[in-house]
Q: What sequence folds into this?
């Protein structure tokens, strides 16, 4: 069964350091999402791509976060510099089209900022 | 209701009990309602995507209903098993917004 791949699964870093997460969606899925889930809260959308274009990054803290999907396939989410409040689970998901069917999620990347 | 709200926040039941949770959401400009199951150390898994008022979907012992006019959905689990222990998330898709808005989830623990 096809899966959304994410790495690393766990990342511990010190504040002010740079962090990067990678996601490889299911082949053929045009829509890719990055969500952040803080313990006790629901996932919050950070950025949504349709192919290589950003269609929604209204909740992305652009002073420190960046995301790209250069060839419309895999994607990278970067944080620089990391802050204590960035500690969370970062989930990547993909779907064939943004309004049809459910999202397929990866296992997530757990970030701890010390 | 302005946001997607789920209740209860957490729930403990005995194996064999049936249980249900609630997802409440803004009824205006509704497009779809999603349910996901998220087991510890695994990926969230899509259970249902529901779009029509009065819709009812079933997957094994799990079923869901949808009322778009009053803005709520119920998830039912019949005869809970320990493997049903997970966080159950609902998410609303509006007709205009491209993004899903998630609730904070209901954490279910089924005790053997």
A:
């Amino acid at each position: 069964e096809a899966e959304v791949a994410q790495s690393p699964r766990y990342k511990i870093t010190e504040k002010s350091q740079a962090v990067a997460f990678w996601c490889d969606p299911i082949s053929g899925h045009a829509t890719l999402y990055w969500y952040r889930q803080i313990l006790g809260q629901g996932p919050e959308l950070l950025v949504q791509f349709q192919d290589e274009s950003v269609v929604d990054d209204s909740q992305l803290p652009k002073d420190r976060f960046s995301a790209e999907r250069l060839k419309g396939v895999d994607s990278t989410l970067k944080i620089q510099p990391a802050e204590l409040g960035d500690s969370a689970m970062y989930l990547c998901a993909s779907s064939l089209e943004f309004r049809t069917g459910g999202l397929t999620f990866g296992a997530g990347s757990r970030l701890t900022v010390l | 209701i302005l946001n997607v709200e789920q209740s209860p926040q957490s729930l403990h039941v005995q194996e064999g009990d049936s249980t249900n949770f609630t997802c409440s959401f803004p009824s205006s400009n509704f497009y779809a309602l999603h349910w996901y199951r998220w087991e510890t150390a695994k990926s969230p898994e899509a259970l249902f995507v529901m779009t029509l008022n009065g819709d009812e979907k079933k997957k094994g012992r799990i079923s869901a209903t949808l009322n778009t006019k009053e803005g709520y959905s119920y998830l039912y689990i019949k005869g809970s098993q320990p493997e049903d222990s997970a966080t159950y998330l609902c998410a609303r898709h509006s007709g205009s917004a491209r993004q899903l808005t998630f609730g904070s989830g209901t954490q279910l623990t089924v005790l053997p």
